[in-house]
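Human: I would love a firmer grasp of how sequence relates to backbone shape in proteins. Take your time, and here it is.
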Amino acid sequence: MSILQQMNQQELGLGYSSNSVRRDTSSEMFIASRLSESPTGKIRLMESILERKNMKRAIKRVIRNDGAPGVDGMTVRQLKGYMKHHGPKIRQALLDGTYDPLPVRRKEIDKPDGGVRLLGIPCVLDRVVQQAVAQVLTALWDHTFSDSSFGFRPKRSQAQALRRCQDYLRQGYRFVVDLDLAKFFDTVPQDRLLSRLATRIKDKRVLGLIRRFLQSGVMIGGLVSPTMEGTPQGGPLSPLLSNIVLDELDQELEKRGLHFVRYADDCVIYVRSKRAGERVMEAVTRFVTRKLKLQVNQQKSAVGRPWDRKYLGCCFTNHRAAPKLRLHWKTVKRFREKVREITGRKRGRSLQQVINELNAYTGGWWNYFGIVESRNRLRPLDHWIRRRLRAVIWTHWKNRRTRVTELLKRGVYHDYALTTGCARKGAWRMSGAKWVHIALPDSYFRSLGLVFPWLDPA
């Protein structure tokens, strides 16, 4: 069976399950049995990465993901033409071990709870190579990962992680140890990561390529700074490398018999009492700092109740027999902040443009959070959004004469149209007025295509 066939089987759910080949199968045997070999019997991992089907799949994935250009300015639209002319040269450089990645472009993203997340945007060509490497290494490595690891893995999702948490709650584990790793992607020890990769990857060209990606540097303000630690967050290879690093943590938690769920660097451990949670927190923190050489964020890590702590944007209701999944209040707050940004009254956009942007955002947001069962925090949102839109329309009606004319046109009696249109109150106050609501009913916004996915399921 070829490496590509194995990857296709995994995508279809026909590959090896985590339980069947978890730790008891030799990874070297697993790799060797699925890679082509040279006449001398040497495993040729780089040749498998450069297989035509694997590279075509990587190119399609990078184009589909789109994304901003890197330091060289190449866009994904230029990728196919570039590969057509330079593909053989790139392939030979990878086979010879002379391929040299460009520095990543630094981008800072504000975190919802404060602070900044540092993203590294590789150039498009480097993204293709990283994606091709990640596809093969995922097929070879993923079968050894813990069944309690859900982030960035084939056929696994945030919804499955939350369902597992819900199962633990139903079993009586009513306290959660919320472990937050401080700046995980920026502080991973590279030498330790590479030595762990070397235990299973015998092709030195692949190890050298991964090292060069890790140490390619970051361009900030036109100057390149070296990166001697961390895995730049933003490249296709970083999620897999993070799982490889944190697989040691998974093994330790399994060895201790703990009930846990990990999604990338977000890990929660379920216990039966607060005292047990405090003991687990102390022991796991010691393991992370001494063994993994990582840092635990003491301010954000805590032992608490699952209905108070936020995990993947959600929490649970306090029902012992049947706890329900619900949105955390911070998630709703972030949603409102984004809607305020989209419906800002000084953006100079037409009502239809605002509604189209709203639909795109709420649709993607609901694709992620549509698994919630308790929806009481969603109830006021549709009314609030329509009021935001009425305020936008009121601003578009720039003067008193226009407002009175529009109200009359929409069926409001003359006296009420006159008093409402000539009012000196601000747009937000007027958006809640009775006659504005009558002139701009809910059906009006529905006719313009406004959709609330939690009310109007497809």
Observations:
- Residues 351-369 form the longest helix (19 residues).
- Residues 151 and 263 are 4 Å apart (CA to CA).
